[in-house]
Amino acid sequence: MDKERKNHVPHCLILPYPAQGHMNPMIQFSKRLIQKQVKITLITVTSLWKTISNKNLSSIEVESISDGYDEGGLSAAETLEVYKETFWRVGSESLSELLHKLSTSENPPNCVIFDAFLPWALDVAKSFGLLGVAFFTQSCSVNSIYFQSHEKVIELPLSKSEYLLPGLPKLAPRDLPSFLYKYGSYPGYFDIVVNQFYNIGKADWVLANSIYELENEVVDWLVKIWPLKTIGPSIPSMILDKRLKEDKEYGINLSDPNTEYCIKWLNDKPKGSVVYVSFGSMAGLSEDQTHELAYGLKDSDTFYLWVVRDCDQSNLPKGFEKTSQKGLIVTWSPQLLVLTHEAVGCFVTHCGWNSTLEALSIGVPLIAMPLWTDQVTNAKLIADVWKIGVRAVADEKEIVRSGTIRDCIKEIIETEKGSEIKKSALKWKDLAKSSFDEGGRSDKNIEEFVNALAQF
Questions:
Q1: How confident is the model over 270-325, as pLDDT tens digits?
Q2: What residues contact 217, with CB distance under 8 A and at least 6 apart?
Q3: Strands 303-307 and 366-368, how do they pair?
Q4: Angle made by CA atoms 80, 85, 90, in degrees to the nearest 5
Q5: pTM given for the model
Q6: HSE-CB of 426 using CA atoms within 13 angstroms
Q7: What's phi and psi for 95, nearest 5 deg?
Q8: Would you please indicate which residues are annotated as catalytic (active-site) residues?
């Protein structure tokens, strides 16, 4: 490396998979790197960048690459499989063009931190002689399961009655991610999650948005295979260590979060009395499931704040909003502000990894209602390993009935078991904060990574 470049601050390109739940943790991690004097350029996909309403990224520079569908992204492609094939090809080409352009800039990049869903970015980074760093936006437990599918340790379709995998509790087939348990259900996504490992041996670092103490056994196992470091929870600093005073929320939102409306409604509710319900930005509930959830909330006779996306509003029972005196239904919410509000007593969640880490870091008990993908495995860990929630169990038609939902809410809010779960949630909240605080494990791991960048 020439001497001139030594004087420059390290410069990382950050490339997330184009979805809100993948962008936000990588943007949060970027803020930590900026705090440690690293220059950051976020690489977005043109099609997604056009749809983002608030782009509050302050000192993060942004460049775009193409996924081959600049107007419409995934929704413009015939199928996910076609989208993936196009994006992998066109993305590689346009990332290479961008790296050519940036190589002659005043401070050329020396590192590409890419979402592990996009392993081709590692091949591109290496072809330019740059550091290549994989970033996992899902739990280490789930990534370990996908890795063992990739290595054919877990044979598909599943045939065993239980699975004993390194560092994990005993898992029934139904506890494995849905792409494995329902083999063939989403071939495009299956392909993405399993093939994220085809070249991981070339990665200089593997960073995981997780907390070591949360998954220590599986992390200890993975560390023997990859240069892995946990750097999570990758959520705004004001929830955790409060070292970044401006860092109160994520950098992007794909919808208007109705902030004032939600918080005003929560302000006059008693402490711990509100059930917050949200299933994330990706998947919606069926009409049957929406009806069961509606009546379960109503029958629980508690206050509730329920996020029903615009595209799912038609699934609500006719006239339900008018008859439900204790509820507020919104199309999107400022989730972090809601979860930190003292009126919230529990969170009915799909168990997406970001929502799980947020609730755990804030100390809010969960009612786990997983829909698909990694959520089913997260739900198992939430209820049986970390003991920060209860599982709302679906029936043979895969619907969680209203009585089950009502009973879960009452269990968290009214019973002795609920009190134990709250205590456990507060224990993990303290652990999350101390891991991220100065001198904590995640903080030290980030420091070590930044020092290595500066040497490169």
A1: 999 999 999 988 888 999 999 999 999 999 999 999 999 999 999 999 989 777 78
A2: 166, 167, 168
A3: unpaired
A4: 120
A5: 0.95
A6: 6
A7: -70, -40
A8: 22, 115
